[in-house]
Amino acid sequence: MKFGLVTALSALVLAACGGNTVGDSEETAWDAIEEKGKITVATSGTLFPSSYYGDDNVLTGYEVEIMKAIGEKLDVDVEFMEMGVDGILTSVQSGQADMAANGFDITDARKEDYLFSEPYKYSFGGLVVRASDNSGIESFEDWDGKKAAGGATTTYMGIARSLGAEPVTYDNATNDIFFRDVASGRTDFIPNDYYISNTAVQFFADLGVKMHDLKYNPSEQAIVLSNDDNSVKEKVDEALAELREEGVLSELSAEFFGGEDVTEPLENVDELPVFEPED
């Protein structure tokens, strides 16, 4: 009987030790990426100049090229999965994509569900209006009752709703479609990131739209990651730090944003008004 008791106790001890060994060697999210040899990145492919198709019909843009450079640093391939902006974050949460790069602001609400890399872009909110009449907008109070164009779940459309604008939502439309609708009166304005909007307005200079003087909501933008564990964030942040130190981020910024350096925190933005987006 004593022999049997000792044997049983020994088996329990071995089983417990075995459980700890398995726990210690549990695969991380980065291990899974390394094993498959690629990162899957959700992006729109329609957001000039961050994620779009150039004249050679190849996907490029500020954030696309950053992701390609990160892939080289981490020695993995980068596969882009294109979809409408309203489905991008969901794809990260569901595991369909490993991360997302499409001009996403870091917000407290999003940090409840996702991790973010270190920021690679500093900006604020801008406003595209009709060149002929400013779309009848002189102040933020004038947003009330106006038709705001954008993706349904974006931070900027949430701000527009909070200020009384009527949302007109689009599913992964290109900049020129947005601009033509503002110029024709189908919509009144496009609330969005200033640098993205300003660069696009200059590129599509003949479409009858312009940047308004109103500025608001300072922002930091980064890669969106799953909050399953920190392993992928740690790797991505290491790569971003190297790219920043080597000057690659500032070079890409100058290339895609008309010489502007969006990689450094902006001065005097604390003076800008801040509006809470409506869910």
What does this entry look like structurally?
Its main location: other. Residues 38-260 form the Solute-binding protein family 3/N-terminal domain. Pfam families: SBP_bac_3 (PF00497). This is Transporter substrate-binding domain-containing protein. Belongs to the bacterial solute-binding protein 3 family. The protein is of the alpha/beta class. It folds into two domains: 29-120 and 222-258, Periplasmic binding protein-like II (D-Maltodextrin-Binding Protein, domain 2, 3-Layer(aba) Sandwich), CATH 3.40.190; 123-218, D-Maltodextrin-Binding Protein, domain 2. Helix content is 39%, strand content 20%. The protein is built from ten helices and 13 strands. The chain has helices at 2-24, 29-36, 62-74, 85-94, 108-111, 155-162, 175-184, 194-203, 231-245, 248-256; strands spanning 38-43, 52-53, 59-60, 77-82, 99-100, 114-116, 121-130, 147-150, 166-169, 189-193, 209-211, 216-221, 224-226. The chain has a five-stranded mixed β-sheet, sandwiched between helices. A hairpin with a 5-residue loop joins strand 2 (52-53) and strand 3 (59-60). Helix 3 (62-74) crosses helix 9. Mean pLDDT is 92; it is low at 1-23.
Shape descriptor: globular
How far apart the termini lie comes to: 67 Å
Strand runs, count: 13
CATH architecture of the largest domain: 3-Layer(aba) Sandwich
Residue runs with pLDDT of under 50 for 5 or more positions:
1-23
Name the CATH superfamily assignment of the largest domain.
Answer: Periplasmic binding protein-like II
**What is the strand arrangement across the widest sheet?**
4-1-5-13-6
Share of residues in strands = 15-25%
Give helix % range.
25-40%
Number of domains: 2
SSE sequence, one letter per element: HHEEEHEHEHEEEHEHEHEEEHH
Major pleated sheet: 5 strands, mixed
Structural class: alpha/beta
